[in-house]
Design brief:
Blueprint: E1 3-8, E2 15-20, H1 23-26, H2 37-50, H3 58-62, H4 68-79, H5 90-103, H6 107-111, H7 119-136, E3 158-159, E4 163-164, E5 186-191, E6 194-198, H8 203-214, H9 224-227
Antiparallel strand pairs: 1-2, 3-4, 5-6
The protein binds a DNA duplex (21 and 21 nucleotides) through β2, α4 and α7.
Length: about 250
DNA sequence: AAATGCGTCAACCGCCGGAGT
DNA sequence: GACTCCGGCGGTTGACGCATT
């Protein structure tokens, strides 16, 4: 059931109408819009004291008029001490490009490999900078191939340079090419991994593979995943949260 | 100086999968 | 197995600031 409500942003007078469906956002009295310094301080001090997690009950416990999702997002994307502020460095940009070419719009996976960067930040940077940059260079941002040739290869087909293409819309939760996030299972179809269904996932080889991408050698022959399709049991796919920054190679 | 256009990015939405019951 | 709760993800929106007219 959808219902539309009128809401006024806390930061302006312009009212907006949105379709509200999620329970946490239908609660009356919940504040929306940009966070104030005071709210930030409350959230930070509460998490320092109580730790992360139990997001849905956190606002009530902390005395915030925000939904749990909003608190989590604010913490993850802005308030966490490990979040790096400032512009994306050229080496970070290069890494984003290479990882995106490999795994598509898996922002959390990409973020998990770039210290201090959040999935939201990388997604924004991609949409506002890199996408346009590639387009201006005549490169399809989705396939990373020349635009005029982008229709000549089917998704999953090997392309010059040893790269493989993910299926279109690989970002969808429901398609067959999802690279699983979190501790969920997923499938990378016709990619470098072969047409494998990753119903069970283990970390080491995929992690090594991403590390090799980070280290500019995605097709290192020492990495078995690249010389032969991996078996389902060979993978686990981490996320920005499950792949902590302490797991990122120091030599990045 | 005012109006308009455009780019950026914080925040929100809808959905999904896992865990617990 | 069905259901609910929760955390997390990717896509999208819109407020805001800057540039241009």
């Amino acid at each position: 059931m959808l219902k539309t409500v009128d809401m006024t942003s806390s930061s302006g007078n312009r009212s907006v109408a949105r379709k509200i469906t999620t329970p946490c956002c239908t609660k009356m009295g919940m504040k929306r819009g940009p966070w104030t310094l005071e709210e930030d301080e409350i959230l930070v001090s509460f998490i320092k004291k109580e730790g992360e997690g139990r997001w849905r009950s956190l606002p009530k416990r902390a005395g915030l008029l925000r939904c749990g999702k909003s608190c989590r997002l604010r913490w993850m994307n802005y308030l966490r001490p490990s979040v790096k502020r400032g512009g994306i460095a050229p080496d970070e940009e290069d890494l984003i490009l290479r990882l995106h070419r490999l795994i598509g719009n898996k922002w959390s996976l990409i973020a998990g490999r770039i210290p201090g960067r959040t999935d939201n930040e990388i997604k924004n940077y991609w949409n506002t900078h890199l996408r346009k940059k590639l387009l201006s260079q005549g490169i399809d941002p989705q396939t990373h191939k020349p635009l005029d040739a982008s229709n000549t290869h089917k998704p999953g087909e090997e392309v010059p340079g040893g790269q493989y293409l993910l299926e279109p819309n690989s970002s969808s939760h429901t398609d067959d090419t999802t690279v699983s996030s979190g501790n969920g299972a997923g499938k990378i179809s016709n990619s470098v991994f072969g047409d494998e269904d990753f119903g069970f996932c283990y970390d080491d080889k995929f992690s090594s593979f991403l590390n090799s991408v980070i280290n500019d050698d995605p097709f290192d022959s020492n990495i078995p995943v690249l010389s032969q399709p991996l078996q389902t049991r060979d993978f686990i796919v981490g996320t920005s949260s499950s792949l902590g920054h302490d797991q990122i190679p120091k030599d990045m």
